[in-house]
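User: Please predict the structure of the protein below. I'd like the answer in structure-token form so I can feed it into my own downstream comparison script.

Assistant: Understood. Taking the following sequence of 552 residues as input:
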Amino acid sequence: MKRLWYGLAAFILVIFASLLWLRRGEFMDVLSAFGRPSEAPQPAVAWTTAPEMPSGDLAPGSNRLRHIISRLIDPNAIPYEAILRFKTDADFEDFLKNNGKLRLLGSIPSLRAARVGYENIDDLNDIPENADTSPNFLVQLPAPPDPQGPGIQDGAVPFGSSAMEWLGIQDNETWGEGRQIAVIDTGILEHPTFGEVSVSNTQDFVADGENASAVDATIIEVNGHGTAVASVAAGQHDAAPGVAPAAEILSYRVADANGNSDSFTLAEGILAAAEAGADVINISLGSAGDSNVVEEAVETAIASGSTIVAAAGNNGVPGLTYPAAYEGVISVGAVDAAGQHLDFSNTADDLSVSAPGYAVPAAWPDEQVIQFTGTSASAPFVSGSIAAIMSWDPSITGQQAYDLLLAHSNEAGAPGIDPIYGEGILNVGRVVDAGTSGIYDVAVASHFYAGDIQDNGREILQVVAENRGTEIIYGSTLKVDSPVGEQTFTLGAMKPGEVVSREVIVDVRHAELQGSADYATSLTLPGSQTDNNPADNNLSSSFLPPVAAEGE
């Protein structure tokens, strides 16, 4: 009787999974995850009809077949494809020689992985028992942030031509010299912004294995997304400048003209970049599917010495897309020119850092320059910064360069690491100035609504200050104007990089009556000391506490 119930439960599970497959279009909305200008081709995936479940009595071995089908049916998977993994080289090589009715679409010997296609359910019986079976997930360059959904909030400030200055980058002509940045994307087209920069080791994993040059637009149609990403990391032209213009760019085309790719092809690109010795690997694309083959490719690349940077995603939801979500990958969120988190940028407890991601200049095919928006644009700012720091000192590893960026990032949001901004906002200028004495710079880093953190019925606003200079600062004055009046705090000694916060009570009743609670904070140095950057000494914010919002 138990066997009957177990069999019935398994059959119901497979039927339910099949229905999910058939309604996969409804699930694809979760993949609108990375920035791309409106001029870019929109993703267009023509999903094939899902395989029908076999009717009648299943043949011997049907329990195993049910298990395989349940593994492959996933709303984020590519229909009629699978990735097989083998534990031994012998098993892997045997399958390559004899794969039965399965169509061999590709193989990665170093991972003992094979990409296969199949026509119907019966073909899956030719999957060897010693193979681990998993889906081949869709990887995409989705549309720009949706203005009707979690997109760009009112009051967001575009960067325009100010992104480099905002990051403290100047006189960077030699930054990145001797370092390699791999751009795993849609390929890189010729553009004036690259000047004499070397775009080399180009590989195309999309053009049916022909390995055609993605730099030559006469060979194959190429989406401009990869060109834009590469220009942010290493562009040379004033109209589309990059962080590390002297770096060598390695181009790996894994996505087609519609911006579509898959887990297997992405893994191929990552491994090729690592094998070529790329110092930094930038991945401004992603998937909602957690692929073990991509995860192992990431682990292999990191173990070989490459540093991987990936876009967090533009869904406007908690949770990172893959590969940004994998351990060891530097995930990057997006902020505007006022240092505000952009609503479309995904959040997560393990988000690494934030960088410019709203209307930054970037190269586009046909010698165009576009305003690039999304975490796709944010990631190459970090990739270029890591390559730049590595070029300053040949002994510095990618991880050490990233650690320097984190140590000198600007505090934002809640004090310390938070899911909105990660460990802070990129500020390359602070790294450049770290060895320069005599820099005095205190900043009002954020107003963070903490709620009733003391559980005493009082709503709290944390006013966060940071010493962004290179000298210890004693006795700065912090003034906060709020609906409950002016409050003044004298801050003690603040070491370079130190963050402190002071708590202010939120007048909830006032917020409910007036529709908002307004706060204005100023921070001044003691005595006759002059602040090197007075622009960050003041901060104003207006918001409605959640308790008031519920009453609307």
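That's the full token string. Residues 2-139 form one domain.
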